């Protein structure tokens, strides 16, 4: 007989989901948005929250409805195409970008002020960091205990202290907005929400959340779906609260670091301004816990996925993924962000289309006819937006810049809507034609 989770376990599952999402990127990007958007901060925040909170929560719900796996979510586009999408998503939020980024950001924000920058300190730090990540990831059945009951509450307390301080004691008033935020704050915030990688993360975390519930003896599909949705909603509320306080922190910190190059500089400046000499130590602990939890969740999810498609065991893959991520992390944060931005810009649009259309499957005679063309068009135009951010932008013809919403980084949106509407009309026409014939 299937077990039921206690209220405490449901909260722990929600806290674990929240903790899996809130990595270093979630903490360093919102302050930068807050600083650069100036008086338009809440317009930028609204756009950012759609892609950094709304879409991840929708993704968790969509995955819960199909059983927790990206393979089931992508089934309408065919097995091979779905597998390709899954592999790309797992690599992007796994050993290529997200897992190494947790190490580089936690080093630069938390440790570099004490050890100094350089290849040597980063290498030594990454050795210790990934040894810990591998050690925890080898025992996925204990995630609800190690993360949900211990690490997640610690992270929440630390974030609450930082957030309350930012709301009650801002450093100053907003500075003038940068040019891009001055002209289009909402769409710029929307696209910058991609950088958190939370929607892609949600596509791979779904199975981790379901497995955590299963580790408590829950095997009823209906209960698993319900508990996963609860966890996603709890995480969404927590993410929204964190982001709002970090937007406020960044918005008021322009007087401290008006020319900050990243969110790490803003956080450093604020915590030292508000908490004095102990601020750097506090920030180091917060970032370390945040990054470790996210790295563990991503490592578990990637090892779980690839163990089903490669002749390697889960434990072997945990070690290999950890070692590979350690090597990539030593490229440094700036290189990782530079490489990841074009990839995420191309990958997000088809994922957004897949997630949103997954709620409409019962509407269509053929869901593949609807979803596959819309995803293909969104990918093509997403690649155009990605090229604009890469070193190959000079190869693009001039007319590309005149596409609708191109300046906002959303050139994919209108063509995708147009193609989606055309195939939807065709699907309905085919259905009516078949009914008339029979």
Rg is: 22 Å
By DSSP (H or I, 4+ residues per run), the number of helices equals 18
Beta-strand percentage range: under 5%
| Global structural class | mainly alpha
Q: Distance N terminus to C terminus?
A: 46 Å
| Quaternary structure state of the chains depicted | single chain
Largest sheet: none
Helix content: over 70%
**Averaged pLDDT, please?**
84
- How many β strands by DSSP? 0
Ordered list of secondary-structure elements with their pairings:
Elements: H1 7-21, H2 24-37, H3 41-66, H4 70-73, H5 79-96, H6 98-115, H7 119-137, H8 143-168, H9 179-183, H10 185-192, H11 198-214, H12 221-252, H13 263-275, H14 279-307, H15 314-329, H16 333-357, H17 367-389, H18 413-437
């Amino acid at each position: 007989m299937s077990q039921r989770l206690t209220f405490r376990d449901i909260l722990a599952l929600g806290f674990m989901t929240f903790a899996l999402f809130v990595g270093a990127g979630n903490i360093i990007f919102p302050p930068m948005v807050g600083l650069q958007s100036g008086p338009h901060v809440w317009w930028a925040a609204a756009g950012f929250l759609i892609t950094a909170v709304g879409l991840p929560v929708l993704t968790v719900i969509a995955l819960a409805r199909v059983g927790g796996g990206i393979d089931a979510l992508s089934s309408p586009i065919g097995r091979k195409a779905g597998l390709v999408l899954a592999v790309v998503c797992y690599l992007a939020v796994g050993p290529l970008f997200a897992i190494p980024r947790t190490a580089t950001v936690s080093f630069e924000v938390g440790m570099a002020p004490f050890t100094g920058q350089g290849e040597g300190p980063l290498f030594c730090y990454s050795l210790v960091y990934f040894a810990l990540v591998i050690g925890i990831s080898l025992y996925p059945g204990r995630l609800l205990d190690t993360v949900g009951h211990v690490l997640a509450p610690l992270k929440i307390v630390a974030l609450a202290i930082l957030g309350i301080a930012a709301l009650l004691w801002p450093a100053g008033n907003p500075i003038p907005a940068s040019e891009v935020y001055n002209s289009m704050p909402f769409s710029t915030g929307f696209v910058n929400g991609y950088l958190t990688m939370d929607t892609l993360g949600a596509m791979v975390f779904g199975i981790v959340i379901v497995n955590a519930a299963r580790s408590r003896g829950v095997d009823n599909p209906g209960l698993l779906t319900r508990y996963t949705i609860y966890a996603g909603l709890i995480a969404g509320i927590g993410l929204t609260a964190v982001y709002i306080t970090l937007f406020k922190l960044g918005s008021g910190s322009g007087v401290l670091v008006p020319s900050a190059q990243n969110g790490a500089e803003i956080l450093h400046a604020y915590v030292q301004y508000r908490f004095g000499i102990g601020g750097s130590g506090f920030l180091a602990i917060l970032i370390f816990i945040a990054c470790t939890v996210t790295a563990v969740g991503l490592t578990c999810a990637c090892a779980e996925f690839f163990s089903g498609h490669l002749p390697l065991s889960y434990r072997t893959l945990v070690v290999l993924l950890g070692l590979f991520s350690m090597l990539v992390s030593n490229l440094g944060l700036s290189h990782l962000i530079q490489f990841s931005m074009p990839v995420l810009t191309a990958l997000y649009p088809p994922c957004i289309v897949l997630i949103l259309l997954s709620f409409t499957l019962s509407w269509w005679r053929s869901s593949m006819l609807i979803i596959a063309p819309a995803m293909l068009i969104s990918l093509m135009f997403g690649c155009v937006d990605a090229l604009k951010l890469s070193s190959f932008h000079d190869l693009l013809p001039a007319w590309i810049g005149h596409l609708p919403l191109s300046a906002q980084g959303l050139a994919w949106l209108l063509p995708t809507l147009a193609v989606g509407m055309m195939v939807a009309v065709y699907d309905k026409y085919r259905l009516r034609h078949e009914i008339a014939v029979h």
